[in-house]
Specification:
Helix 1 (12-22) links the parallel strand 1 and strand 2. The chain has a domain at 2-144: Rossmann fold. Helix 1 packs across helix 11 and helix 6 (122-138) packs across helix 13. The model has no long low-confidence stretch (mean pLDDT 94). The protein contains 15 helices and 11 strands. The chain is α/β, with parallel strands linked by helices. The strands form 2 sheets. A 7-stranded parallel sheet has the order 4-3-2-1-5-6-7, sandwiched between helices. A 4-stranded mixed sheet has the order 9-8-10-11. It starts with a strand and ends with a helix. The protein is 48% helix and 15% strand.
């Protein structure tokens, strides 16, 4: 019986992970859960999965929650989440937390837990060198949950893991694929959130619309699979049937295909290296008339090119890219800036940044703080 901690259990990844776990009652046991502030859903999850402990990041809600769940250990705040990871035994942790706030929990998990099922890309973008180095040192397995990185992981495993020449990261193109460059200024948050293929959280949906999500995935793939950025190519694939491909030095290309259901890569990570029956609807190839692949329009989606450049520069540039993006996406969702301002502001912040060179964790956290503060400064100018 494997004990599993699910971080971000009330989000889309967390709820899908719990659905998978529920189908293997003789194999998996939930040891702990964490949520940011959705204590209503967390209460229902507790009744069903009966964890030993939970963490609520919102301190006020954590205190209120603890009063009504006196028999359960409730950790509060970001510090409490890390304490829960250290103190509550688990064989595997599912990281479904969105954004940079996952970095310290991931580093804590690496010191305590041997298998990490990772759906958070921002932490790897910020501190990929540090995360991978520590995971290797501690002999911790990092199993990707993102559909694209799970696809690459599966293709590499099938190919023996050696002789890789190139990675093809596919993406549907998001909700604005057919929107003209001229019309992007008029894009509303509702339009940006209307993803044609995947049901995702608000932040990642906007990242998909700007194609920053694909840029962050490029940086993540660079760290997870050890390829230089020139060996990672993004392809627009509107049908979202091929989740990514790997080309080997002998000319062979392996593709991982399947339905748009996050339970597939989640289950693969949880049951790796084996495979088990899944509730996912069987794929019907006879209904597919054609598969299309296009190179992305970088003039229309400049965030993707910025991510490539940040990856090439290395150091703290990817961290600042991510920090600035988190702030501008939040402002866009609040209706305070235009869709096209997202890329413009990030570009200005990157232009002002000076890399510290070979950063440690403290330098990464300082770059993250600087990127957020500088973005807010620029946004104040935009607002005025």
């Amino acid at each position: 019986m494997q004990k599993i901690a699910v971080l971000g259990s009330t989000g889309s990844i967390g709820t899908s992970a719990l659905d998978v776990i529920s189908r293997f009652p003789d194999r998996f046991k939930v040891s702990s859960l964490s949520a940011n502030s959705n204590t209503g859903l967390l209460s229902r999850q507790i009744k069903r999965f009966r964890p030993r402990a939970v963490s609520v990041v919102d301190k006020r809600r954590a205190r209120e929650f603890a009063k009504t769940h006196r028999r359960l250990r409730v950790y509060e705040g970001a510090e409490g989440l890390c304490s829960m990871i250290r103190e509550v035994e688990a064989d595997m942790v599912v990281v479904g937390i969105v954004g940079s706030s996952a970095l310290l929990p991931i580093m804590t998990a690496i010191s305590r837990i041997r298998r990490i099922a990772l759906a958070n890309k921002e932490a790897v973008v910020m501190a990929g060198d540090i995360i991978i180095r520590e995971a290797r040192k501690k002999k911790v397995s990092i199993l990707p949950i993102d559909s694209e990185h799970s696809a690459i992981f599966q293709c590499m495993a099938s190919g023996g893991g050696s002789g890789v020449k190139k990675i093809y990261l596919t993406g549907s193109g998001g909700p604005l694929l057919k929107t003209s460059k001229k019309e992007l200024r008029k894009v509303t948050p509702q339009m940006a959130l209307n993803h044609p293929k995947w049901k995702m959280g608000r932040k990642i949906s906007v990242d998909s619309a700007t194609m920053m999500n694909k840029g962050l995935e490029v940086i993540e793939a660079h760290h997870l699979f050890g390829l230089e950025v020139k060996g990672i190519e993004v392809l627009i694939h509107p049908e979202a049937v091929v989740h990514s491909m790997v080309e080997f030095v002998d000319g062979s290309i392996l593709a991982q295909m399947g339905p748009c259901d996050m339970r597939v890569p989640i289950q693969y990570a949880l049951t790796y290296p084996g495979r088990d029956v899944s509730p996912v609807k069987q794929f019907n190839f006879s209904k597919i008339k054609a598969l299309h692949f296009y190179s992305p329009d970088l003039s229309k989606f400049p965030c993707l090119e910025m991510a490539y450049e940040a990856c090439r520069c290395g150091g703290t540039y990817p961290c600042v890219l991510n920090a600035s993006n988190e702030i501008v996406v939040r402002e866009f969702l609040k209706g305070r800036i235009r869709f096209t301002d997202i890329a413009k502001v990030i570009q200005r912040v990157l232009g002002l940044h000076r890399d510290s060179g070979n950063p440690g964790l403290e330098e990464i956290l300082e770059a993250d703080r600087w990127g957020r503060e500088k973005t807010k400064e620029i946004l104040n100018v935009v607002h005025s």
